[in-house]
Specification:
409 residues; alpha/beta; globular
Length: 409
C-alpha cells in the first residue's frame, strides 16, 4: 500500500468519510485461484462453528484481480445468500473444466515437439490474437456470474462496493473499476500509474482483468470517452491493497496464490539450458509475482507506528490503523501442479510437452510446472488446491477469528 494512499484517504480533511468496512482482496493466478475457494470455505466453517445462527456475508467490500476478479464478482452476485455464497463458489469450481475456460485444439502432428507446438500456437494467434481461444470463458461467465444481482446486493446493503483491476496496454496505467452503492462517498482517484473509474461491472471487465498476457487476447474497454485495450490486472499492480483502502476498508483480508521463493522441484539442479516452456512459466510467474507481501508489511508498519503514538496525539489524528491479514499457500503450487499434469486437455498437454514445459528432468522444473498450473482448470488439481486452502485456514484459525472479531461490518 503506497504511503500517499494513507495520507490522502486518512489525513486529508477534505477526503470523504468512510465507515471502515471489512474487505476481501483476491489476487490473480489462473487456475491457482481455486486455493482462494478453499481458504474461504475454511473461513465459512470457522464462522458457522462459532456462531451457528449467523449467516450474513462477512465482507462489505470485494476487490479482485485476474481470476481473483472472477471469484470476487461471483461472490458478489451471490452475496445475499450470506455464507452460502462461498458454498456456491466452491460448487462452481468443483464442476469447472478447462474446456469451459479456453480452447486449444489438437492438430494431427505426428509427435509433440517444439516445431509442432510452435505451429499450433501460430495458428491460434492468427485466429484469436492470442495463444488460447477464450470464448468458452465468456460463455461460462454469462452462465454463472449474474451481474444484475450485484446491483441488488448493493441496493439491499449486503455489499458496499465491488471492484476489479485491469492494466491498459494503451496507456500503461493500472485501472480499478468500481461498482458501489448509490450513496458511497468514494470518488474516482488518480495516482501515478494508477486510476479508478466508477461504473457498473460487465463481462468485458472480467475478461479484461483475467486476460493473461500472450495466453488470452486483449479486451477493449471505454475509459475517459475513448477505447483502450486491457490485459491482466496483475500486471503493473504496485499497490494491491490501496483500492480497498480507498473504498473505505479498515480491515482487509488478502488471499494470494503466489510463491515468492521458487526453487527447482525436489531440490534438483541442472546445467541444461531452460526450455521454452520453462521460460514461459518463469515469465508468467513474474507477472503474477505480486507486491502483496511488501504492501502488507508497509500497512502493518504504518499502523504500528500510529499505535505507538501517545494516546492524546493518536486521538487527534483523523486516522485509524489498517488491520491487514494475508494468507498464501503453505505448499508449492508448482509441485502440486506437476502431480496433475496428466489431466490437462489433450491439445494443451501435447503443446506443453512440445514446449518442454512438462519435462521433469530438466532445470528449473518449478518454472515449467508453473505454466501448467495456470491452465489446470480440472477437478483433480482444483480439489487439491481447495483442500490446501482449507488446511491453511485451519492453521490460521486464531488469526482469522481475531480478524472477524474486529468492529468492522
Amino acid at each position: 500500500m503506497s504511503l500517499d494512499t494513507l495520507i490522502t484517504t486518512t489525513f486529508n480533511p477534505m477526503a470523504p468519510k468512510v465507515s471502515g468496512s471489512r474487505a476481501l482482496v483476491l489476487m490473480g493466478g489462473g487456475a491457482r485461484t481455486a486455493y482462494q475457494v478453499g481458504v474461504l470455505k475454511g473461513i465459512a466453517h470457522l464462522l458457522r462453528t462459532r456462531s451457528p445462527e449467523r449467516n450474513d456475508f462477512p465482507f462489505k467490500i470485494l476487490l479482485g484481480t485476474s481470476a481473483g476478479a472472477l471469484n470476487a464478482t461471483y461472490l458478489a452476485s451471490h452475496a445475499e445468500q450470506g455464507l452460502g455464497s462461498i458454498d456456491q463458489l466452491c460448487t462452481f469450481w468443483r464442476q469447472l473444466r478447462s474446456a469451459q475456460v479456453y480452447r486449444l485444439p489438437t492438430f494431427p502432428w505426428p509427435w509433440p515437439n517444439l516445431l509442432s507446438s510452435g505451429l499450433t500456437l501460430m495458428l491460434q494467434v492468427r485466429q484469436h490474437r492470442a495463444l488460447l481461444d477464450t470464448l468458452p470463458l465468456v460463455d461460462t461467465l454469462h452462465r454463472h456470474v449474474m451481474l444484475e444481482r450485484i446491483e441488488d446486493a448493493l441496493r439491499k446493503g449486503a455489499l458496499e462496493a465491488v471492484a476489479v483491476t485491469a492494466s491498459s496496454y494503451t496507456s500503461g496505467e493500472h485501472w480499478t473499476f468500481c461498482q458501489t452503492t448509490a450513496d458511497h462517498p468514494c470518488a474516482p482517484w488518480r495516482r501515478p500509474g494508477r486510476r479508478a473509474s466508477m461504473q457498473p461491472l460487465t463481462i468485458e471487465h472480467l475478461m479484461a482483468s483475467s486476460a493473461i498476457p500472450f495466453l488470452f487476447p486483449a479486451v477493449p474497454l471505454w475509459v475517459d470517452g475513448r477505447k483502450e485495450y486491457f490485459g491482466d490486472g496483475s500486471m503493473r499492480q504496485l499497490s494491491p491493497i490501496s483500492p480497498a483502502i480507498q473504498l473505505g476498508a479498515r480491515d482487509v483480508l488478502v488471499i494470494g496464490v503466489g510463491q515468492p521463493q521458487r526453487a527447482s522441484l525436489g531440490g534438483r539442479s541442472s546445467d541444461e539450458d531452460p526450455t521454452a516452456g520453462t521460460i514461459a512459466g518463469h515469465a508468467l510467474a513474474s507477472v503474477f509475482h505480486d507486491t502483496l507481501q511488501a504492501d502488507v508489511e508497509q500497512a502493518q508498519r504504518v499502523s504500528r507506528t500510529i499505535a505507538q503514538l501517545p494516546p492524546e496525539v493518536a486521538q487527534a489524528l483523523p486516522y485509524r490503523p489498517v488491520n491487514v491479514l494475508a494468507i498464501q499457500p503453505s505448499v508449492s503450487v508448482d509441485e502440486l501442479a506437476l502431480k496433475h499434469v496428466d489431466v490437462l486437455p489433450a491439445g494443451t498437454r501435447r503443446t506443453l510437452v512440445g514446449l518442454g514445459a512438462l519435462d521433469t528432468h530438466r532445470a528449473a522444473n518449478s518454472s515449467a510446472a508453473a505454466l501448467a498450473s495456470y491452465l489446470l482448470f480440472e477437478p483433480d488439481f482444483v480439489n487439491a488446491l481447495i483442500e490446501c486452502g482449507q488446511r491453511d485456514a485451519q492453521l490460521r484459525e486464531s488469526e482469522l477469528l481475531a480478524f472477524f472479531d474486529t468492529q468492522a461490518s
